[in-house]
Amino acid sequence: MLTRKMKDSGMKWIGELPEDWEIRKLKYTLEERNEKNNPIVTDNILSLSVERGVFPYAEKTGGGNKSKSDLTAYKVAHPNDIVINSMNILAGAVGLSRYTGIVSPVYYTLYTTSEEINITYYYYLFRTREFQRSLLGLGNGIMMRESSTGKLNTIRMRIPMDKLAGLFLPLPPRRVQDLIVKSLAKDIKVVNKLINQTEQSIKELKNYKQSLITESVTKGIDPNVEMKDSDVEWIGDIPKHWNFIKGKYIFEKLQRPIRCDEIITAFRDGQVMQRSKRRTEGFTTSLKEIGYQGVEKGDLVIHSMDAFAGAIGISQDNGKCSPVCIVLNSSNSNIYNPYFSYLMKVYAYLGYIESMAKGIRVRSTDFKYHTFANTFLLIPELQEQQQIVQYLDDKVSTIDRLIEDKIKVIEELENYKKSLIYEYVTGKKEV
């Protein structure tokens, strides 16, 4: 078997590449399309995301920027155009359009009419981490974030087109480009299938966890207990000796003084802990901590804006939190906070919290204390509360470990896919 001859590309991010491959500047390989939508060519507005690539704006869900009312302010993109977000290419915002549509003026659209070029090859090339990281020195930073160490990090950078145009890129023979595109399509399909199967397995585990918690806190864990109708349709039958009591009769809303300066965050997965122990990125920092309150380990904390999504739990730490959190405790010796943490999560799962709260922003509600105070809580005897929590803690921790293992599998598959693309498009993996 003959070994291919390799040569130094002269670029650190590429390293060696096959001897018969060329190196050519982007501007001599691809052309920028600067077609204005004036007069109007189409009203099909396109979006671009790291996860989905290019897709119709009409399919967009959740938040994000609103589309412009003036359609002439957009640029036209055509099928087989590479679409790049100049502000977010470092994060991987690049896609290959399958549509005729219009895109934001901050996007670049690249195309080719050359028989020498398979544009999909360059789409794959632009998706590599190595290419994206090679752009770090080219960007104009427009937004800064201070890290926990005090270092300022640029998180959004505009890459000017003239700098992109001057980049040297590999140019394999057209036959090789075609083979790379074909091989990647096949291999990525296999990897994506494994990722989808693993994601489905995670979804099933999460559903099982929710049903297990729901069954345990509303029916108990004694299969032989006598039941009665709760008169609450979404709860159904409950153990005969259980009762309902309004929240205000068993829990006090606290306004503790701040004794620890660490910020406590209630996450949507039910963890309540010092933010620094989990992650420090992606949070909004208050310039003035008006209304902040102390939290102590063992307090029941409900995030009033995210409670509908499960941001309810027992604080694992001492610290402080914003007034958006409801901090609760009970002086009743027959009340075991962890049981009510599980119970309120069930109220979230079953849609009660969302139905009782007034929505004020996308994907959020406002579950105020007075609503909690007048919510009927299902109360077993203290010993049963403790037994249910012990049972669920054991079962849930096992399920969570399985989920974590599967998340790691997905991360490994995603990394493998990225390395596969890089190996192919730089000629290190032979086709």
Radius of gyration, rounded? 28 Å
- Biggest sheet architecture: 4 strands, antiparallel
- The spatial strand order of the largest sheet comes to 4-11-8-9
CATH fold-type name of the domain at 6-172: Adenine-n6-DNA-methyltransferase TaqI, Chain A, domain 2
Secondary-structure class? alpha+beta
Number of strands: 26
Quickly give the CATH architecture of the domain at 6-172: Alpha-Beta Complex
Look at the structure and give the mean pLDDT.
90
Low-confidence stretches: 146-154
Distance between the termini: 14 Å
The residue fraction in helices comes out at: 25-40%
What oligomerization state is this entry in? single chain
Task: Please report the first level of CATH classification, the CATH class of the domain at 6-172.
Answer: Alpha Beta
**Helix count, DSSP H or I runs of 4 or more residues:** 9
Annotated CATH homologous superfamily of the domain at 6-172: DNA methylase specificity domains
Q: What proportion strand?
A: 15-25%
Q: What is the overall silhouette?
A: elongated
Gist of the model:
This protein is α+β, with helices and mostly antiparallel strands and about 425 residues long. It has helices at about 120-125, 130-135, 160-165, 175-220, 275-280, 335-350, 350-355, 370-375, 380-425; strands spanning about 5-10, 15-20, 20-25, 30, 45-50, 55, 75, 80-85, 95, 100-105, 105-110, 140-145, 150-160, 170, 225-230, 235-240, 245, 250-255, 265, 270-275, 295, 300-305, 310-315, 320, 325-330, 375-380. InterPro entries: Restrct_endonuc_typeI_TRD, Restrct_endonuc_typeI_TRD_sf, Type-I_RE_S_subunit.
